Each structure stands twice: as C-alpha cells, then as structure tokens.
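hiii, so i know i said id send this last week but things got crazy w the move. better late than never?? heres the sequnce for the chain we talked about at the cafe, plus the structure i predicted for it. fair warning i was half asleep when i ran it
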Amino acid sequence: MKARATCPLDCPDACSLLLTLEGGRLARVEGDPRHPITRGFACAKTYRYPERVKERLRHPLRRVGRKGEGRFERVSWEEALDEIADRLKAVLDTHGGEAVLPYHYAGTMGLIENQHPLAFFRAIGASELLETICATAGAAAWEMTYGPRLAPDPEDIPENARYILLWGINSLTTNSHLTPFLKEAKARGAKVVHIDPYENRTSRFAHLHLKIRPGTDAALAYALAHVLFREGLVDWAYLEEAATGVEAFREEAEAWPPERASALTGIEKEAIEALARELGEAKRVFLRVGYGMTRHPGGGNALRAVILLPALLGAWRYPGSGAMLSTSGAFFLNKRHLGGRHLLEGGHPHEGYFRPNPKARAINMNQLGTALTELDPPIRVLFVFNSNPLVVAPSTGKVRAGLAREDLFTVVLEQVMTETAHYADFLLPATFFHEHPDLYTSYGHYYLSWNEPLAEPEGEAKPNTWVFRELAKRLGLKEPTLYWEAEEVARSLLATDHPYLEGITLERLKAEGFLKLNLPKPFLPFAQGPVRFSPPPEVIPTEPRPGYPLILLTPPAHRFLNTTYGNVEALVAAEGGEPVLLIHPLDAEARGIRDGMLVHIHSPWGRITRKARVSEAPRPGVVVLEGTWWEKWAPDSKGVNHLTGEGLTDLGGGSTFHSTPVEVEPLRLAGFAPGPQSC
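okay and structure toks below
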C-alpha cells in the first residue's frame, strides 16, 4: 500500500511524502511529486524514517530501577493512567496546579498532537512553559519590524529575484526544498551570497561566502545600510510610503562606516562596499535569514537590523523579493480553542507567537535546569512530550540533577527510548505521524495539509491527545474542548473568515491532502508596509570571556533534526560516527592540537571531550560542533549542552546556544605523550 502524508518534523519544508506500508508497517518513504514544494524528493534523513520506527516503544512502562538506569516493567494502560492520575490528584490537592509542568516542543509539528495537549494543563492551572528554545527571538524581532511573519512566496523566486542573500542559515541542510528554487534563480543569472561564520554546504553552493564573526550581524547590516544611504541606492519613494523611523535608523547607520564594521565583523571593507553596491543595483533581492543569528545575547536586534535591508532597497515591491524568516504568519487559523487558549487571558486567536496568561507561573524552557533544581515552590510533577530535554535543553548538568530528584514524578510520552526517557517514572508509547490524524501548516511555504491515519498503531501506542483525554476523565475535568477528537479540533481551527483560508475545508483537505492558501497575486506582503525602523536596532556583539577565548557554534547536522534520527545507525555513520569539533588551524596550532586528537572543551558551565578536526571551515576564534547528537555516540557519553548556559536573548527570551565561550585543550592522559602518528 502507498499513501500520502505530511512530514511531522520541525523543518520549514513540511514535505508531502509518499509512504509505502507493508502489512500495516512503514517500509519506505519518498517525496511526493505532486507537491509544488516537495517536488518528488525527501531529505537524506527522512528516507531513513522506517529505520527509526523499528526501535519504537510499544507498551506502557513503569520504572523499577533508580532514575536514569532505564529499567522498567510493562504495565497496562489502565494501571499506568490510574496511578498517574492518583499521583497527580495528590499533588494538585496539596500544592496546586503550579507544582505541575509540561515540557514539550516540536517533536511533531502537527497542530493537534503538538498543541492541543496543553488544554489539559491549562484546565488544571499548571505552570506555563514558555516555548522559547528556537524561534521567539526571531519572532519578536520580526513582529517589531513588520508584524505578522509573512515572506515572499518561494515559488516566485526563480523568475523574479535577481540577487539571493542567505544570511545565518545553512539552507541546503535546514531548508533543502528551497534549493531547487535557488538553483533556478541562479541559472537565470541571480548571484548567491552566503554570510555565515563557518563554511558549510550552503557556502559551497553560493558564488561568495563572507565569514562573519559570530554575533556581529547588526554591525554588518548597518555598514551595508551606510553605503546604501551614502551612494544613493535607497528606494526613498518606498520608504516614504511604507516606513516609519527611517531617519533615526539612518543616523545609527552613519556611525557604522565599512572600516568600523570590518574591524568588528572580520569582513574586509572592500567586500562590504561591493556587497552593498550589488544589492543596491539589483533591488530585487531575496534575503533568507535563519534563526541561527538570533541565538546570541543581541540576536533579536541583529535580526531586526538585517531584515530591514530589503526595505531600504524597496525589494518588497517585487514578487519573490524581500526577506524570509518564516511564512507561519499567513495561516490565519482560529486558534482560540487550540490547546485551551480560551482558558487563559492574553492569548491571540490567530498569531503563532503566543503570549501565555500573565497570571500563570511561567517557566522559560531554556531554564529548565534551574526550574527543576531551584524553583520555590518546586515542580513536583513533570510531563515530557514531543521533546528530549536531557539532550536539547541548556545546562545538561542541571537538567540531569533535576530529573534525578526522587521527589519529582516524571511522565514521558515518547516514540523511542531517549536519554530523557530513562528518567521517567512512567514511560508511555506515542504514535508516529502515519498513525494519527493531524493538521499541518508550514514556516517555509504556503500549503496547509492534513494527515489521515494510514495504519493502526503498533503495540499499544497512543496519540498524545488520547493520553490527556484519559487523564482528564480520571480527574473529573468538565471543560468540553479537552475531549475533542482531532477532527473537531481541525474544524475549530478552520472556522475563520480570513480570505487566505476561504474555501479551505476539512473535507477538501481530506480529499486532496494539501491546499495552497488563497494568497493575493502577485503576493507582495509588505509592498505598502508597515516597516518600523524605530527604535534603531542595537549592536550587541558576542564576546568571549576571560579564560574562554573561543566562541562555540552548535548548528544542525545534515542528517539529524535536533535529536530526531539520533538513534538511526546508518545516519550516525553517514555523519562520521561521532560528533567532532571543527577548529581552525591557527587555533589548533596555538594549543598544540592536531587533526584527530581527543580534546577537552570547557565552558563556564561544563566540560566535554571530542575528537578534533582541524579545518579552515570555521573562522579563527570560532569552533563548531555540528548536530545535537545522542549522548551515547560521544567519546565521553556527554551531550554538547553540558557546555551551554541558560542566558537569554535581548528579545523574546530565546536561547543563546551560539554564543558559548569555550577553551579547548589536548586530552593528556597520564603517562602518555602523543607522537606524530598518535592522533
């Protein structure tokens, strides 16, 4: 049997896939040739999805060993749910809802299985998790500048964009289905420039790679603006019609001539001037930015400075031109009841950047370690779903200490046996995307899609929403939306009069699989603005610390998606079998490090061991660890987030993963001095 489904993973592509099922089990994954974005190919990792499914959890389990040992016994669903409900009731009666915390994120991007479980937690008054680990700094920056997260239609890029600027994104890895559109534009004569602190697949695809010093993007943006203003390359007609605060921004740009920006960014003055002139002459510029530049203390301001450049050029007047961070703001679904938002104050029914109830105790997910070890009154019950916080959250040492608390009752809903799952008191098997219905938007294109369940769940696996419906029954909760099935949630989401969704019904989605939003033609989301240049973005450089002279970047690996696929041995082997540290030859020589040598990497928050790869890919002063690997593949069985801290961004309370100050030194074993061939 072959059938269509949408990929559930946290990626802008939201691919339409063709799944081959044999005996009700997933056997093969292909790209859907009918989908205008997927175009018949899937990424390197998704082809291996069936191998991930083979190692799935099939039955509810209860812990029998010490926390972290991963020793469990099989129990029935009735036994598991009854005991969980009893433990939960006792905590709610004694300590109230704020003693309960859901930790969740984007293990699935299906709106129903991702968000609707939160209705249960909002109904019991649980502490609110601020979902800040990835996108909130960028979302806040975009909202300050433009409003809703809209972008040029990628299908308009090939025929219209004359210049492609890929800034702070390895798009060939993290947005691979944009690549065919970039290739077509390139074939039609568009120049492609990549701005990133280290060389990667996208750098090699581009005509030019500018290796910027991490956390200095705002300074480079101002220098480009300086040249555009100085040489009369700004579209004043557009700015007068569509923008506010331009003069204050111009004054700030005047303080950043290319010479000053060069000293901070590490990019030659001549290269800055040449890029500004080329942008000014092209006008029809497509700027693709990623969230990478936002993962610095000044990341929100940096993104604001960068995404204002297309407005200076008037690029928004042309199809396929302007800036793209996300397309998620175009899906004007009615989210009032999704995840129980109507139970809170302060929620907006449409906007994806959700502001939780200010009256609830809010916990930033980047500070989970502190929340589990220092919060008063403490968290006593933790539910984890759609995430693997022991590996992905900052300050792993603190997170592990929190999860190891014997007085913390932890329930994990999971598909495979992750590091976090080892700390569960109850481990509940979750369904995969082809086993439950769900509705999918995208943050890289404008297609809405629906997944029908294509197979019965293996073993006793259940959807997240089923688990929380059952718990709600046991707690006697009366809120009707807690008991909505997937189709009821979907119909509620589609109950909107926004013109982009006119005529899009659940019946049509079921029949056709995916539908494009009714965008105006041509689609020019900010041709009339509003563009807010004020307040002028601040330049907040990322700086090393005394004793930690290098900056560590932790960008995605090509064959993992966060920690998803980290258990697939074929993908692990294709990534080299273990995580390695990229270090520039000058930095390696200064530390006596040779290629292949084991090294200690230490930060103010922790220490790990990795094999060094001496490479000119990173710029001097920068070291790179690609991918969030499962801990078992590392030489010291420690994940990269042992090194990271809980610091937050200037806007949106986001993570600062790409600003970690570190030092690197050779691993010196007692009585062993490595010789020339001992690496």
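btw The longest helix spans residues 77-95. thought thatd interest u
miss u guys!!
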